[in-house]
Amino acid sequence: MSKAFQDVNIRIAYISPIPISAKDDQILTELKNLATKETKVYLVHMNPSLGYQLFALAKNSGMMSEGYEWLISDSLSISLDSIDSVTRDSMEGVVGVRPYIYRSKELENFEERWRRNMILEKKTLSPISMGLNIYGLWAYDALTSLAIAVENIGPVNSNSFYVNGTYNNTDLRISAFGPRLLNELSRTKFRGLTGDFELIDGKLKLSAFEIFNVIGSGEKTVGFWTRDRGIIRELNLTSTKELKNIIWPGDYIKLPKGWDIIATRNLRVGVPWNPGFQEFVNVTIDHKRNITNATGFAIDIFLATLKLMLPISINIDYHMYNDTNNTDWSYDDMLQELPKDVYDMVVADATIWAPRANYVDFSLPYSESGVILVVKNRKQFDMWIFCKPLRWDLWLAIIGACILVGIVLRILEDQGTRNDRPAAGMVYLSPVVVLAFPERNTVSNNWSIVVLVFWLFMAFILMQSYTANLSAILTVDHLKFAFSDNYYIGYQKSSFMKKYLIEHLNIRKSRLRNYTSAEEYHRAMSLGSEKGGIDAIFDEIPYMKIFMNRYDSQYKMVGPTYKTGGFGFAFPHGSPLVVSFSKAILDVTQGPNMTFIEQKNFGPGYTSQDPLSSTISQGAPSLTLFEFAGLFLIMGSVSLFALFCSETPIGRKFIEMMGIFVHICFRSRTSRVDSVEEGREEENSDESMHDNVASLPLGEGMDGVPHDFNGDVYQHSETGIRETITSDEPFVTHDLGVPIDNNGEATYTTWN
C-alpha cells in the first residue's frame, strides 16, 4: 500500500503499527501520539475487530470531530453490515472504499433464503451475525464457477482419477483432471451474485469499487471507481468526475485542511542571518526578552499567506540560523536542519534548486526566477554624439543630395521668367532653406515643386529616423558584451551560485570571487579585475534588480537568463503545509497587495509585474552639456561667421568679392538665356516689335534699361547718355552729348 501511494506522489507522513492483541491503553497511547502530528488524515487498514475498537476509542478521545479525516480500506468496509449501532455511531463521517456489488433481484432472493436457513439451523445467533458480506458472496460464486467447470469436463473414470507423481523428492498422488479443471475455470464466465464473474491469471476481475460515506445508521454512496474511467459520480456514461457531497466527522461539510498547527506549541520558523540583501530577511534578537524578530519581503509574504490559511492568530517562534554570525555558513546548511525536526519550515530567500529537493520540500516560488549576468555600463558619450545616429556614408549622401537638388532647382528655375528667377547666392542652399523658411522660397517652375515635394518627403523620413536613433542612443544602452574566460566573476556568498557556475557554466574556480552585499558588489565592480575587483556579477534576478535600482544606470543586465526555481519556503519531506502554503502564495502574489509589499521593502517604483523592469534601470541618466558641445560649437561658429561677414569691413569685402566671383561664374549663361528669350519674342510679333523699338528710348531693352546691340548697359544723366563698356579694360564713361527731354526720353535716336 505504501508503494501504491508513492506511485501517485502521495507520501505517508507517519505509520502507526498496532498489534492485533492490543489493549485499550495501548491504542489510546498511539492515538495521543497521532494527535500531536500535524497531519489530520488517517487511513485505517486492519481487521474488523481491532478497527471497531480503534474508532470507539478515537471518538472518546475527541479525534472524530471537525478538522479530522478518516479513511478505511476494504478490510474494514466489507464488514460494516455486521456492526452494531454503537460502533457505527463512532464511525460517523468515515469514508470507505469496497468492491461494488450490484443489487440484483437474484441477490435479494439469495439473501432472503440465507437468513431463513440460518434461523432454522442456528437459532442462537443474532440477526446481525446471520448477514452475508462480500467474502461469502464471492465464495458462493467461486463454488458456482467450480461446479460449472466440472460439468464442462463431463463424466470421469474413478480408476484413472489419480496418477502417481513426485514433488520435491516426495511421492504424491496427483489428480489427472487437475489441468483440465484449471483450464475450464479460467474460461468460465457467468453472471453471479456479485456481478460478472471472470478469473484473469487466477484472480477475480473486479468491475468497479464503491466509495461510500458512513452517515448515521446507514451509508451513502458518493461515487465509484473503475479501471477505465477512474473516479466518477455514477456508473452511467454521462457521469461527471466529481464525488457527491461528503459529511466529514463533526458534521463538517467543507473539505477539511488535512493538517493543523498544534496549539500545544508554536510554529517553529527558521530564518537566516545574512549581512547582505536584508530587504528579504532581516533578523534581530531582543536579548532582554529573549525574543527573535524578523522583517523583510519574505517575512511579509509569509505572514500574508498565513493569514489566508488561518484566520485566527497563532504563535510564531522564529529561530535564527547562524546566530554566531559565522561567515562560512550557507543556505544548504540551514535547510539540512529541517529533516532533523529543528524547524517546522524555513522562511528565507532560499532558491528552489533540484539538489536541495533531495532533503526538503519547497512551496511554489514567491519571487521572480532566473540567474542573470550584470556588467558595468561602458557606453561613452562625447561632444559629437549627435553625429552618431547616422553613419559617415549617410551623412555624405545627405550633403551630396542637398547639392544635387540645389543644382537641379537652379537649372529648372533658370528656364522660368527672369523676374521669378531666384537669387544666385541661394541656389545651392534652397533645399535646406526651404525647410526653415518655406514662405520665402517659392518657386515658379512646376517641376521644381515636384522635386521639392520628394525632397521634403525624404527629409522628413531622415529627420524622424535621426530623432528615433538619437533617443535610443541617449536613453538605452546598446551595450555589446562578449564574455571572456579571463573575466573575474562575482557571486553571493552562502548561496548555491558557486556550485552552479562551476558545474553548469564551466567557469573556473580561480575566476570566482564571493561577496555578501550590494555595496561590496559595487566596490568590486568599480575596481575592476585589474585592481582586485571583478568584471561581472552572476546572481539571481531579485538581488540584481535591487542592486541596479540602488546604483541607477551604472550597470546593465546582459546575456540570457538562466532558469532557476525562484525563492520559496522550505519544509520537511512530507509536510502537509506544502500544499496549503503553495496555494496561499498564489493568492498573495497574484493579489492586489503584492505591489505594496514589494515597494515597502524595495522602495518606491519597484515592481515585479513590469516586464521591462528586469532589463531597464529605474532611473534614466540626465543629459549634460558635454553630450551636445559639438552641436553648440558648430552653431556658435556659424553665428560668429555671420556677424563677421555682416558687421566688419573685412567681412563685407570678403562677401562682396565672393558675390563678384559667383556673378562672373554665372554671367555668361545668364546673358545667353536672355538673348534666346528676346529672339523668341521677335519671331512671335515682328511688326509689333519694330513699332515698340521705334518708340523706345535709345537702346532701351525689354526691361526698360538702355542697352547697346552688344548687351552693354547705358545710364542716363541730366546732360546726356553715358555708355558703360564692359570689357577687360578699365571702366570708361563717354559723354555723348545727347539731349534729353523732360520725360527722360532721348530725342536723338542714332548713335555710334
Please, could you describe this protein's structure?
With 752 residues, the chain is an alpha+beta fold. 37% of the residues lie in helices and 17% in strands. It has 21 helices and 27 strands. A six-stranded mixed beta sheet has the order 1-2-3-10-11-12. A hairpin with a 2-residue loop joins strand 8 (199-200) and strand 9 (203-204). The radius of gyration is 52 Å and the shape is elongated. This is Ionotropic glutamate receptor C-terminal domain-containing protein. Residues 676-697 are annotated as: Disordered.
Write the layout of secondary structure elements.
Layout: H1 2-7, H2 24-35, E1 41-44, H3 48-60, E2 69-72, H4 74-77, H5 85-90, E3 95-99, H6 105-121, H7 134-153, E4 162-166, E5 171-175, H8 178-187, E6 190-192, E7 195-197, E8 199-200, E9 203-204, E10 209-215, E11 218-226, E12 230-232, E13 267-272, E14 282-286, E15 291-295, H9 297-309, E16 316-321, H10 331-335, E17 345-351, E18 361-362, E19 371-376, H11 392-414, H12 430-436, H13 446-475, E20 489-492, H14 497-503, E21 512-515, H15 518-527, E22 536-540, H16 541-550, E23 555-562, E24 567-571, H17 577-589, H18 594-602, H19 629-647, H20 649-684, H21 686-695, E25 714-716, E26 721-724, E27 733-735
Parallel strand pairs: 1-2, 2-3, 13-16, 13-17, 20-21, 20-22
Antiparallel strand pairs: 3-10, 4-5, 6-7, 8-9, 10-11, 11-12, 14-15, 17-24, 18-24, 19-22, 19-23, 25-26, 26-27
Helix pairs in contact: 2-3, 7-8, 9-17, 11-13, 19-20
Region (Disordered): 676-697
Protein name: Ionotropic glutamate receptor C-terminal domain-containing protein
Domain Ionotropic glutamate receptor C-terminal: 266-604
